[in-house]
Every structure is written in C-alpha cells, then in structure tokens.
Design goal:
Blueprint: H1 8-40, E1 42-49, E2 54-57, H2 59-64, H3 75-79, H4 84-99, E3 104-112, E4 118-130, E5 136-145, H5 147-167, H6 178-195, E6 199-207, H7 209-216, H8 218-234, E7 241-246, E8 249-255, H9 259-276, E9 285-292, H10 298-314, E10 320-321
Parallel strand pairs: 9-10
Antiparallel strand pairs: 1-2, 1-5, 3-4, 4-5, 6-8, 6-9, 7-8
C-alpha cells in the first residue's frame, strides 16, 4: 500500500481545515439548539462532573444565563443563579439524587436569565456514570425553558379561581350568592361545630321593595339593594357570613354569638335602615327573623328563620322576630 507524502506545511493546513470543519459543525449544532430553544424552549445538555465539582453548560445556556463562554462553574456557582426561594429545593433534590443513587430526577425551578428576569426551567438529570464502588461521578441533564407554559398554567388557574369566586358572588352587591352561601356555610358549620361555638342566623327582607322598584325603576331598586348590603357589612364582623339569599332577602350567619346579642345587632340594623329612608317617598324598612343553632341542619334552620321573618312581615313589618319576642 502506497502512502502519499505530505510536507509539514500541508499537514498543518490539513489539521487547521479539520479544526475549522469541526468548529463549523459545532457552530451549526449550537445554532440548531439555539433555534430549538426559540421554537421549543430546549436549552441543550447540562453536565456535572461530581468528582471535580464542575458544571459544564451548553453555549446556549451560557448565553441565556449571561455567562462568558469560557466561564467554569461549580455546582454551588450554578445554585447562585437559581431563585432564592428555589435554591434549597434544588440543592436538596440533587443531594438526594446522589446520596440515594436515584437514577433520575425531574424538577422545576426559576433561574436568572440575561434579561435579569427569572425564567422557569424544567431540569431532568440522570446519573450516567459511577465508580467501581457505585458512587455517582457524572450527571447528565437536559434543560427546558418552560416559562411560557408555567405562565399559561398560572393564568388559567387564576382565571379558574376568579370564575369560581365570581360564581359564588352576587354580581350587584358583591355579597355571597346562594351558591356561595352553601359552599361557605358548609365549611363554616363544620369548623364551628368542631369548636362548639354558638351560631346564630338572621334573615332580612326589604319591606315595600317591589313597590319602590315598580314606582322608581330598577336603578333605584338596585341602589336600595346596595345600600342594604353595605349596611349589613357595616354591622357585621369579618368572621360572620353575609349573603344575598335571593331577590330582596339577605341571610347572615353570626359565629360565636348567642341569640340575645345577635338580636341586638339586627335591631340596630333595622333602626339604621328606617332612619336612612325616613324621608323616602316609598317607606323602605327591614323585617327580620333570628334563630340560634340548636343542633338542626342548615336547611332546617333557614326554614325556621324564614318562618320568623314572615311572622314579622304579617305583624306589620319593620320588626325583628326571634324566640325572645314570641
């Protein structure tokens, strides 16, 4: 077999050409990964030589994390790029990964990018090399920027919560509607029953509301409903439940309060409403019923307090009825 003889200069040129070809191939590969990043969020491979504690990043990661291409990181250096709230979690996951020789770990965390903003990363790491004793000596991983996905999920969750909240609120008064009352009162009763606290409920109805609404129009009627809703808020505490039960009826649940005190509060509410509308062309007042919890269901309690309310209506309106007044 014959071999071609090359001069020293020719050999050097050939080596340079090979290096240039290799560099061009690597540049093309980096460019491909860079284009994949912009299309999919893929940031390329990530390596950690555990023995020398050297983290090797892909050029795209250097670029995105605003690091020099030649910059070498230890694992601790890499952790310093991670958001303060996520740092302990990332460190713990990797320590657990190595200590327990877990084949793979998948985590999501935030890391500082070139734009000085924190982006969400998906990080899947695997132990791909161990020593003769089985101790991990090299970890290989892939990184994905999942910021857009996380933001979308968070936005959808926010919208869902907002929708659920709106579905439980009366659109006019922003009080709980009947559905919201059911949801909150179920939890409320469970908590109060567990602590053996007193519960008292009250139901109010606006006297002459239909006549006022028909006489002056729906805008006037809406304003009356808003006025009464605000009045109820002013006379109740944060731990109480105030709801628009339907139409011109409102239901209140007082926690850790006996009947006598609840009746005094309801009487003040009635008097304030009477004073507020004393000069109105249509006499707007409140009738109400008040009932203390005695072991019955919420449904039964509402029926009983509704009966008290209509006793107040039938006996001349503008009254508060309870077991104390019967």
């Amino acid at each position: 077999m014959k071999y071609k003889n090359y001069t020293k200069t020719q050999l050097i040129d050939m080596i340079h050409n090979l290096e240039n070809s290799e560099n061009k191939a690597m540049d093309k590969r980096d460019e491909l990964i860079r284009s994949q990043y912009y299309a999919t969020g893929y940031l390329g491979p990530w390596h950690w030589d555990v023995k020398s504690d050297t983290v090797t990043l892909h050029p795209v990661q250097h670029e995105m994390f605003n690091l020099k291409k030649t910059e070498t990181l230890s694992f601790k250096d890499y952790l310093n790029l991670v958001h303060e709230d996520d740092k302990a979690m990332v460190e713990k996951e990797f320590q657990n990964h190595l200590k327990n020789n877990i084949p793979a770990v998948e985590i999501e965390y935030r890391i500082r990018f070139y734009d000085k903003k924190y982006h969400w990363l998906y990080h899947r790491a695997e132990i791909d090399e161990s020593d003769a004793s089985g101790n991990p000596i090299h970890v290989m991983a892939i990184l994905m920027d999942i910021t857009e996905k996380r933001n979308t999920v968070e936005h959808l969750n926010h919208e869902k919560k907002l929708h659920e909240k709106n579905a439980t609120l009366d659109f006019l008064t922003n009080l709980l509607n009947r559905r919201g009352l059911h949801v909150h009162s179920s939890r409320f009763f469970q908590g109060v029953q567990a602590t053996k606290k007193d519960i008292t409920i009250a139901m109010f109805d606006i006297d002459n509301f239909k006549h006022a609404n028909d006489t002056f129009g729906h805008e006037y009627g809406d304003q009356v409903l808003l006025d009464i809703a605000n009045l109820l808020r002013e006379h109740t505490r944060n731990e109480d439940i105030v709801s628009r039960f339907g139409g011109d009826e409102f239901l209140l649940i007082f926690t850790d309060m006996k009947l006598e005190k609840a009746c005094r509060i309801c009487e003040r509410i009635r008097q304030t409403a009477q004073e507020q509308y004393k000069d109105a062309e249509v006499k707007i007042t409140l009738s109400g019923g008040v009932k203390e919890y005695e072991g019955e269901s919420m449904k039964t309690m509402i029926k009983q307090v509704d009966t008290l309310l209509y006793k107040a209506k039938r006996s001349g309106k503008n009254k508060i009825m309870s077991a104390l007044s019967e």
